[in-house]
Amino acid sequence: MSRSAHPAGPRHADVLPEGHYSAPPSDLNALDPKVWSETVTRNEDGVLTVGGIDVKRLAEEFGTPAYFLDEDDFRARARAWRTAFGEDADVFYAGKAFLSRAVVRWLDEEGLNLDVCSGGELATALSAGMPAERIAFHGNNKSTGEIRRAVEAGVGRIVLDSFQEIVRVAHIAQELGMRQRVQIRITVGVEAHTHEFIATAHEDQKFGIPLAGGQAAEAVRRALRLDGIELIGIHSHIGSQIFDMSGFEVAAHRVVGLLREIRDEHGVELPEIDLGGGLGIAYTSDDDPREPHEIAKALTEIVTRECEAARLRTPRISVEPGRAIVGPTAFTLYEVGTVKPLDGLRTYVSVDGGMSDNIRTALYDAEYSVSLVSRSSDAEPVLCRVVGKHCESGDIVVKDAFLPGDLAPGDLLAVPATGAYCRSMASNYNHVLRPPVVAVRGGEARVIVRRETEEDLLRLDVG
Ligand code: LLP
User: Fold this and answer.
1) Active site residue 307
2) Which residues does the annotation say bind substrate (predicted)?
3) This prediction's pTM
C-alpha cells in the first residue's frame, strides 16, 4: 500500500498486483505501442526515432532534458475524439494538461474547442487565434479581472463554480452590457479514478456546487433569475485517469435527474450537459485505456437513455479530455549522469532533469515506464530507480523500472506518456531551467516552447 497514492495517479496503489515488479519484461528493447506515441519506433541501429528523427540527433540539436511531442499523433488523437463525438457534441481540450500557441492552432485546425482555467490560459488561447466562442472558462476562484476579460472577449461559456460566482459573473456581464452564457458545475457525489469509482460523500471538495441538499437546484434558481447570464447547462467532472465508465453512468443519471427537476420547477429544458474530462491513458503496459469511439458511444447512450426515461429532449453533450489527447503524444528525453548500484537494494540512475519537469511521481506516486533509447542492449535487466538531480530524496522520475545492466553515463533514457501535466506542472525548483517542448513531424522538429535560460530566471529577480 502506498504512502501517498493519489487519485490522479495512474492507479491506486492498493490495486497493484502482488509482486508487480518481480518479473522483468522479456525484451527490454521492445517499445509497447500502448505507452509510446504513434510514430515512435527503433531504427536498425537500435535508436528510438519519433516523426522520422532519431533521439541522438534530437538530443544534439535540442539538448536534454526535453519533451518531444509527436504532432501527427496529437492531431490524430484530437481528430479521433472529434469524429467519435460527431456533429451533435462538442469536444473541449483541457488546456491545463498542456497548452502552447502551437497546440491551440492544431486544436483550431482539427475542429476542437478549448477549456481554459486561468487568465494565463485564456491569454494563450486568444493570442493564438482560438475563436472566443469556442472557449470555455473554468476555475473555482476566477478573479473579477479574469471574468471581465473572458466576458469581454466573448467566451462561449463560463462554468460557474460557486454561489458568489453566479452573482459576480452576472454583474460583470451586465456592467458590460452583455449576456454571458454559463453552465453550473455541480458535484454529483461520484468520484472516479482509474479502475474504481466511489458513489458517496465526494461533495467534500472545493469544486462545484453539491447536488446534495438541494444546493445545485438553488444555484439554478438563482442563475435563472439574473439578466446578465444565460444558463445553458450543467457541468460535472468526476475525476482523473478513469478507465471504468460506471462513474460516468452514475454522474449522467444524477445530472439528468437535475435537468428533470429544473424542467418540472421552471418549465425550462437546459440544452447542454458537460461530462468533464478524466479519461485514462496507458502510463505502463498494465493500463488499458478505452478508445474515444467507445467512450463516445458509452456516454451518448447513457445520456440518451436517461433522458428518454425522464422524457427530456437529449441535450447537446460536451466533454473535456486533456490527458487522453496530449498525454500519450510526448516523451521526456534525459541523459544519464550517474549509475549507482546499491548492493541488495536497487540501482539508482540519475538523469539531468527530475521533479522540476515531472512532479507527478513525487506528488501522486504516479507510475511511468522508461527505456534506454540511444541504443539497444542485450545486457541482463537490473531493477533501477530513475531519479532526478534535485536536492530532495523524493525526486523520483520512475520508481521501479528494469533497465539493461550495462547502462552508463551518457546513455539516453526516455519516459513515455509525459505529454500531460508534466510541462504544465513544471517548476524552477533549485533554479533548474524548465525544458523545451519540441514538436516533431514528418522528419522535422521545431521548438514550440523554448528551453528556459538563466537570463529568464534572473529577469524575474529584480535584485
Ligand atoms: N475538465 C475539468 C473541469 C477538470 O478539472 C479537468 C482536470 C479536466 C477537464 C481534464 O482532465 P483530464 O482529461 O486531463 O484528466 N494534475 C493532475 C490532474 C489534475 C486534473 C485536474 N482537472 C495529474 O497530473 O494527474
Assistant:
1) no
2) 323, 360, 364, 392, 421
3) 0.95
